[in-house]
């Protein structure tokens, strides 16, 4: 209903529902650094319920370029004990795929939860807009490509007691949810910083230089009889 109101309010501005939506939006707009907790439907077929002042919400997102490439993760934390959003950037070593970086983002969120909230009687909810990565954490899919990476996450979760285990849910990305939007911008900002470390990725490829390089590489092998033809 929320997203339907957004779509129809511009098309039918005089409709009662559109007027009601604008009044609601006016009273629910968030200011910069204002504490905000999304209470709508956050997961297909499941609601993130009873989010209160004892709940810590961690939003995770990634930015990778190219794919695969250097990845960066952005975590945005909402904790009622602090008046401002907590923003954390992480760099991922070596090249990584988009999905791999999303999984790594969830791992970083789990580790942050352990480092800051283990044994503190806090409910921790981790939200990601990558459904595949969330399903991996919930054992709904078992891709061989990320088997080792997934196992590390599962090992961490299995080492925790029930009280300290964070809940992990999927949320729809780019749908106006403040925490998700902040995490997305944070990850992109971190990735742009990383671009300075890999300028070669933005250079135009010269095909003639590639051919010459291959020929130079093959030449000694042809003389030694390793390559024929």
Automatic annotation (TrEMBL):
Entry superkingdom: Eukaryota
A single GO BP: DNA replication, removal of RNA primer
GO terms for MF: metal ion binding; nucleic acid binding; RNA-directed DNA polymerase activity; RNA-DNA hybrid ribonuclease activity
Catalytic activity: Endonucleolytic cleavage to 5'-phosphomonoester
Record key words, sorted: Endonuclease, Hydrolase, Metal-binding, Nuclease, Nucleotidyltransferase, RNA-directed DNA polymerase, Transferase
UniProt EC number: 3.1.26.4
Pfam families listed in its UniProt record: RNase_H
All copies of domain RNase H type-1, residue ranges: 52-192
Family recorded in the similarity comment: Belongs to the RNase H family.
Name of this chain's protein: ribonuclease H
Origin organism lineage: Eukaryota, Sar, Rhizaria, Retaria, Foraminifera
